[in-house]
Amino acid sequence: MAVERTFVMLKPGVLARRIAGEIISRIERKGFDIVAMKLMRISRNLAELHYAEHAARPFFGELVEYITSGPVVAMVLEGEGAVRMMRMLCGSTRAEEACPGTIRGDYAMHTNINIIHASDSVESAKREISLFFREDEIISWPDGNDRWI
Known about the structure:
The protein is an alpha+beta fold and about 150 residues long. It has a domain at about 5-40 and about 70-135: Alpha-Beta Plaits (2-Layer Sandwich), CATH 3.30.70.141. It has helices at about 10-15, 20-30, 45-50, 60-65, 80-90, 105, 120-130; strands at about 5-10, 35-40, 70-80, 115-120. It has a 4-stranded antiparallel β-sheet, with helices on both faces. The radius of gyration is 15 Å and the shape is globular.
């Protein structure tokens, strides 16, 4: 598998419930490198750009309202097959279908108050990363950096 980058966002409910550390820990234990991370409030404009593919759907307004309702943690992860692996770690977007052991299966009760976003393709990851991070904010770890662990 090739090393990829993916975009992940912990949504306002995660911060409100004080479980961001638990979820970030699971991401790290899986083996991903966190190469960028920031706590931020998303503007309505950025939320609409991020979720542009859902603009015609009936839940779009609620989605934008939720994502702008409080702070989020935006991250860029690197790892082998990062997009697919992170989607598997997250579990189904439908809370009732998310298996125990996945992030959504363990922490999400309601589909419309989803707790985590993860890019669904390499192309989406590139687009989403560029919306939230400048290239100089992404710090890939040099080879051999694991000698410190």
